[in-house]
Amino acid sequence: MSPRKIIRSMTALFVSMAFLFAGNALIVSSIGVILKEKGESSLVVGIISSCFFVGALIGTISAHKIISKIGHIRSFGLFGAIFGISAMMHTISENLIFWATLRFLIGVCYYGFLMVIESWLNEKSKNAVRSRILGFYEIIFYLSFGIGTLIIALNLSRHDVFILSAALILFSSLPLNLIKIKEPVLPASNPISIPKVFDIAPLAIVTSFIAGMLINGFFSMASLFILLQGFDAKAVSYFMFCGILGGFFAQTIMGAISDKMGRKFAIITSASIGFFTMLIFVFFNPYLYFQYILAFLLGIGIFCLYALALARANDVLTIKSKGVELGRGVLFCYSLGSLCGPLILGFLMQYFEVKGFIWFYIFCLGFLILFAINKPNILSKKFSKKPGNMVMLDD
C-alpha cells in the first residue's frame, strides 16, 4: 500500500493527534506564565512542571496494561476524558498541591496517548514506507504544537486557557469514535533493564536522558526564562514557537547528516549547535528579536537528540528480538530526564534566575559532546528508517 493510501486510512487518527498536540502544548507551555503571574517562585514552577513527568513515567509503565484490556480506541477516549477533566479542574482551586496532582494525571494520560499512537503507527507503517509516514506525523506534531504555543500570545485569562486546552483534548477523541477503523495489535510488554540497555547502547541512553532534560526543560521553563527578563506572555509564545520551528527545520537536515556521517557525528553536531547558541547568551545581552533567532538555533540543537538516540540504539542492536525492550528503555530514560530537567532548572533559576537556565543548557550539552566523542562511530547499512523521525519506538 502506498504512503498516501496509508495516511488516508489513518485520517481520523491524524486529526485526533492535531487536537491532542495543540491542547497539550497550550497547557504545558502556559503553566510557567500562569504560576509566575500568581507570584510563585521559579522552584515552585519547576516542581509543579515536573509532576507532569512523574505521571509520564507511570504512564510509560502502566498504560500498556490499560490499552491491552480495553483496546486502543476506548483507551484513547479514557485518556482524553481524564486529561480534559484534569485541565478544567484547574479552574476550581488554586491550591498548588491540587495542581500538582492534576499535572500528574495529565502526564499519565498524555503518555498513554503516545503509546496508543505509536502502536498504531508501528503496525501501519511497514519498513518500506515508515520514514514517509513518520515524516507526515512530524508535520502534524510540529504544526499542532506550534499552534498551541502561539495561542499563549492571545493573552487569554487563566480560566480560558484551561477550558480551551480541555476542549481541544476532548475534541481529539471525537474522530476515532465517529468512524469505523481497525485497531492495531498491541505487542507484549517486557520488563525494562536499564543497566542491560546501557551496556548495549550507552550513547543512546545518555543522549535520550539529556534530550529529556533539555526538550522538556524548554517546554516547562523557557516561559520563565523570558518572563524573568521582563518580557510578556506574547514574547514567551513567540520564543517557544521559534524553538519548535527550529526543531521542525532540523529533522530533515540531521536525518541526512546521520545517514551519511553516522549517528555519533549527528549527535555531536546537534549538541554543538545548541552549546554555542547558549554561549551567545553568556557573552552578549541579545535583544528580544535576536533571542527569537537563538531560540530557532537552540531548537535545531536539541529537538533531534531523542530521535538520534533511538537511531543509535537500533544501529548497535544485534538481537532483533530485543528491539522492543531497547526502544522502551530509551523512552524510559527520556521520561526520567524529562522529570529531572524542570526540577533542576527550577532550583537553578530560583537562585541564579536567567543565568541558571543558560548554564544548565551549556553544561548538559557540553557533557553530551564530550561523552559522544569517546564513543565509536557506526555507519549503519541496515538502518533504513529516516533517523530524523521523532517517534520511532518499537519495530
Automatic annotation (TrEMBL):
Primary localisation category: membrane
Membrane topology, from the record: Multi-pass membrane protein
GO cellular component, one term: plasma membrane
Residue span, Major facilitator superfamily (MFS) profile domain: 161-395
Keywords: Cell membrane, Membrane, Transmembrane, Transmembrane helix, Transport
Location in or out of the cell: Cell membrane
Transmembrane region(s): 12-35, 41-61, 73-90, 96-121, 133-155, 161-179, 200-226, 238-258, 265-284, 290-311, 331-352, 358-374
GO molecular function: transmembrane transporter activity
PANTHER family recorded: TRANSPORTER MFS SUPERFAMILY (PTHR23521)
Annotated protein name in UniProt: MFS transporter
